[in-house]
Every structure is written in structure tokens, then in C-alpha cells.
Design a protein that fits this description.
477 residues; mainly alpha; Serine Threonine Protein Phosphatase 5, Tetratricopeptide repeat; globular
């Protein structure tokens, strides 16, 4: 992702957000993050829970790996300002006087008491240096709420802390990077009300004071946007978090059109043109996410077909990944034949003709799930797991297959084994939701088993992206 100052020491903070902004490579059928994925159609009529369906997850991020000068990276046309008329300025401020609390700590106190809380060892904002290095350490450790709290302190230094919204304060590349980090973390944590209120001040970065040209005394000769491109993409995507995919689609389409114009502007510079083509692709990925939510599958077809036919810089493996993604999207609409065709194209693009690899096994396993052949799907996911042991997406899908095949206890044993082998990685939201659901279906001693899960979460997880009440179904425990 973007490093706003190419000469800065250390990587940009934005690289530490594994799936922000989300890409359909990461989750091909994303649900709106603030909604519960309720699906009880396969359950007993008396069951009032949720079970997460087989996952369509790809690891990997789309990053700008092309080295370009600042004038290419920051290129963005500043808004026109009428001479003699004071321009509207960007005047953000932290909207809450309080630090984000630790919901895991609160749940442990309620359900397990003070003695169990002593097992919780996580970094707080006070435990790190009060600067970007400390912020990076918190993010790497997965302590996202603590990181949000530290951004509030650092923004206060810039005169943009609590109570300062609407008050004049100088924006700098560093302050804008802090805001991008803070808003990305709020999105990741599902803090949508605070996210919305704090993002409003930025007005999609269309005001003149977020451009170098507005500050000639501070940045002599520099031009373009002080805010990173990822910040613009995040702001365009925000309506998705609030359930308004059509608005997000409009904003992303506008962003895509601008990227396309900038790419054409640099048509005589192959590296700069390729750099902006990468950014254009990132916007297209977000548009695909919106189109999936809106069930605009013709639009998805057009976009992915255009990527494959028009993007000449893609490697064979990248094209293969696109065909695989395309096939998995076809599965979301129940077109098994279309999915099989795309998966076949994906296999033909393998660099070498060899035995099936991880992608082949997962693709075939998802086809078997779509055909309700859960035994075959389980065997295929099992072969994929032999290639990449500990892959939680594959483990989750294997558990789904066991449940749908009527093997409840085997599914529980599988998830419990995965947690025992690698608790830090396996205690993710999908697996926690599914295992808690299975405990309820089993009904025997489910409350104590869920409390044992809470003990593990307390010990190994700094943060969760969805509520513990939903994850572990602790209400009434």
C-alpha cells in the first residue's frame, strides 16, 4: 500500500491492515460487517443461532510494488478555489472523550471473575512509545483498540483531538496518515457510529488544504495529495459499512474514472502508467465487492473479463487467481456449471503441469459443497490441509462438511484440535462462531464449554472484530 513519503524510515502503517480495504481476493462473498450472518435453514427448528457457511477466503494483499517518484504517487488534481473567497477547510477532530474499552476483559470479568483476568496480557496505549513506532507495535501485536486510543493521543498533539472538530488546525501528511490509520482500525473493529462521525470532516478529501499546493511555505515545489490513495479508497467504501452499497458503488465508480484519467495522463511513462493501473485495479476489486452485495452479477462478469483480457501485466498465476475468484463468485449465485468452467480455466493456467495444488483442492471442494457431496468435499479439503497445515479457512470448511454430513461430534473434535494446535491463529471469528454453534447443537454442557473458549480467547486474543456475545453466544450463559 501507500507510503506517503518515499524517503521516510520504516514501512507505512497502512501495510499492517491485512484486509483493509477488503478485496474480493480476500473474501469473495463478504457480508456487511456489522450484520450477523444468520442462517438457520439447515438447523433444527428450535435452534436460534447462526452457523457460518463454507468460506471463500484467499490470502494475500494487493500492494503497490512499483517504485515511483512522489510526484507520480501523490498525483491528484486539487479543487478549484474562487479567488477572494475563503475555501472550505478540512477540520477533523476525535469525537469521543473516552478510550475504547476492552470487551474481552469485560466479558471475562462478568463470566469468569478477577482471578481469570490475570491471564490477560495485552499491550495498552501506555505500554508503548507515544509515536508512530508505538502505534506500529500495537497494530503488529493485534491490539487494535489500544492502537485507536493511541491515535487519539497523537492527534491531540496536532490540535485535532476531542472537541476540536470544526476548529482550524494544520493538516500534514503525517496527521492524515494517523487519521487513515484510525479510521481503518475503527472499520476493522466494527465501530461504525464513531467511524461515520469522524470521517465526515474529510469530505472525500476534496478540500484544498489536504494538497501540497495549499502550503507553499511548508512544502516548496511539492504538488498533489498529502493524503494517501488508500485513504481515498477507504472513504469511498464507507457507505458499504453502513449498509448503502449503491452509494459506495457510485463513489467507487467516480474514483475509478479519476484513476483511469491519471493513468492516461502518464501513458508515455510506462512505470507511472502501470502504477496507476494497479490502483485502478484495486478500485475495481472494491467495485466487485459492492456488486456482489447488490447481486449485480453482469457487472462482475464485465469487470473480471476486462481484467483478464485488458491487463497485460498480470502473471499467469495472477490470471489463474482471477479465474478461481470468478468461479467462486459463480458458486455464490448457484451456477455450478459456470463455476466449473472458470475453475477449469484456472487449472489450465498453472505454471507447471503437476498434481493438484492447494487452489485446485479448495476449488474442487467448494464445487462438491455446492453439489451437497459433503463427504467428497471433506476429503478434498483434507488433501488441501496436507499441503498447508493449520489453514483455518480449510479447517472451518472441513468442520462445515462434517456437520452437514451429520457428524456433529467429529466436527467439534476437529475445531477443538485446531485450537489446541494453534490457539492464536485458530481462535478467529468464523471458527469461534461455528464451534459455539456446535456446542449449542450438542446441548450437553454447552455453557461450560463456551466459558472454556472464553478462557482461551482471554489468554491468546488481544482483540476480536465482532462481539463476544455473537461469537460465543454468552448471553444467558
Amino acid at each position: 500500500m501507500d507510503n506517503q513519503n518515499s524517503g521516510a524510515t520504516g514501512p507505512s502503517l497502512s501495510q499492517y491492515f491485512a484486509n483493509d480495504p477488503p478485496s474480493f481476493f480476500d473474501e469473495l462473498a463478504p457480508k456487511e460487517k456489522h450484520q450477523k450472518n444468520e442462517n438457520v435453514s439447515i438447523m433444527s427448528a428450535t435452534f436460534n443461532g447462526a452457523f457460518k457457511q463454507p468460506e471463500y477466503i484467499e490470502t494475500g494483499d494487493i500492494e503497490d510494488d512499483l517504485k515511483v517518484p512522489d510526484e507520480v504517487r501523490n498525483f491528484w488534481e486539487p479543487p478549484f478555489t474562487e479567488p477572494g473567497i475563503p475555501p472550505h477547510l478540512t477540520m477533523p477532530g476525535v469525537m469521543s472523550p473516552n478510550d475504547l474499552s476492552d470487551p474481552i476483559r469485560e466479558a471475562v470479568l462478568i463470566h469468569l471473575g478477577e482471578s481469570e483476568l490475570s491471564q490477560r496480557k495485552i499491550l495498552r496505549a501506555d505500554d508503548v512509545t507515544q509515536d508512530e513506532r508505538g502505534l506500529r507495535n500495537l497494530i503488529v501485536a493485534g491490539c487494535y483498540r489500544s492502537a485507536v486510543n493511541l491515535t487519539g493521543r497523537l492527534l491531540t498533539i496536532y490540535g485535532q483531538g476531542y472537541g476540536r472538530v470544526g476548529q482550524p488546525a494544520k493538516n500534514t501528511p503525517h496527521s492524515l496518515q494517523l487519521w487513515f490509520t484510525r479510521l481503518s482500525l475503527l472499520a476493522k473493529l466494527g465501530q461504525y457510529e464513531l467511524l461515520q462521525s469522524e470521517a465526515e470532516a474529510f469530505d472525500h478529501l476534496t478540500r484544498p488544504d489536504v494538497y501540497y499546493e495549499f502550503h507553499p511555505d511548508m512544502y516548496s515545489g511539492k504538488k498533489g495529495s498529502m493524503a494517501c490513495f488508500s485513504f481515498r479508497l477507504l472513504l469511498a467504501e464507507l457507505p458499504v459499512y453502513f449498509g448503502n452499497a449503491p452509494e459506495a458503488l457510485d463513489k467507487l465508480s467516480e474514483l475509478h474514472a479519476i484513476c483511469n484519467e491519471i493513468k492516461k495522463y502518464f501513458s508515455d511513462d510506462s512505470t507511472a502508467c502501470a502504477f496507476w493501473r494497479r490502483r485502478e485495479m484495486r478500485v475495481l476489486h472494491s467495485i466487485v465487492n459492492c456488486a456482489i452485495m447488490m447481486r449485480k452479477f453482469n457487472l462482475i462478469d464485465d469487470i473480471i473479463r476486462g481484467m483478464i483480457l485488458e491487463e497485460t501485466t498480470l502473471t499467469r498465476e495472477e490470471r489463474r487467481s482471477l479465474f478461481s475468484a470468478w468461479g467462486r463468485i459463480y458458486l455464490q449465485i448457484g451456477d455450478i456449471f459456470g463455476a466449473e468452467q472458470k475453475f477449469a480455466e484456472s487449472r489450465r493456467l498453472k505454471e507447471t503441469i503437476s498434481s493438484p495444488d492447494l487452489r485446485d483442492f479448495v476449488d474442487k471442494g467448494l464445487i462438491a459443497v455446492a453439489k451437497n457431496d459433503f463427504q467428497e468435499a471433506y476429503l478434498l479439503f483434507q488433501k488441501a490441509l496436507q499441503i498447508e497445515s493449520g489453514n483455518t479457512m480449510i479447517l472451518n470448511n472441513m468442520g462445515v462438511c462434517l456437520l452437514y454430513g451429520g457428524k456433529l461430534k467429529d466436527a467439534i473434535n476437529l475445531f477443538e484440535r485446531a485450537i489446541n494446535l494453534n490457539p492464536q491463529k485458530s481462535l478467529n471469528e468464523s471458527l469461534l462462531v461455528n464451534l459455539s454453534t456446535l456446542y449449542e447443537l450438542e446441548s450437553y454442557n454447552s455453557a461450560n464449554k463456551k466459558l472454556n473458549l472464553l478462557k482461551l480467547v482471554n489468554k491468546f486474543k488481544p482483540d476480536l472484530n465482532i462481539s463476544l456475545e455473537f461469537c460465543l453466544k454468552l448471553q444467558g450463559s
